[in-house]
Amino acid sequence: MVHDMDRGYSRSMGGRRSGDRAPSRPHTQEAQTRARPRGSIDTLPSGSLRVRVYAGKDVLTGKEYYVGEVIKPGPHAQDLAEDAKRRWTEDVQAGRHVRTTASLVQIIEEHLTHAELEESSKDSYRANLRKHIAPQFRSGPAAEVTTHTIERFKAE
Fold first, then answer.
1. pTM over the 0.70 mark
2. Residue pLDDT, tens place only, 40-85
3. What is the CA radius of gyration of the chain?
4. DSSP, res 55
5. CA–CA dist 9, 12 (Å, integer)
6. Is 21 exposed, middle or buried (0-12, 13-18, 19+ CB in 10 A)?
7. How far apart are alpha carbons 8 and 26 in whole angstroms?
């Protein structure tokens, strides 16, 4: 056993001298994926399985953001949950997922905050947002706004 007499601790027990290098971390995508699992499958009180995959930070709120789904109980539920976890993980890794849970109104307000426009234009846009858009699109994430939703809005 090697002792560092100046410091009074054994290097074999994890101690290091100031010149020692820290252990290197794996740099490959595969090693990083193994080190930190990307998703989980939890059993809910109802017997359903909840699949969740970490998708990063919400671009507007900065909070942790997860994507996933709930699989109803049944004889093949575990297999379906594993397939869903794999699918969601692939979508997140490929960037094919929604990156925020913000509503359409929140996204427009954020845009107007940073847009390079005259204040009178911003005021006009905000008034239209409050009067016409906010009553229809305040609740729910912007990702749930479909072409059908927009067509219904335009028809009113």
1. no
2. 999 999 999 999 999 888 877 788 888 899 999 999 999 999 999 9
3. 25
4. E
5. 9
6. exposed
7. 31
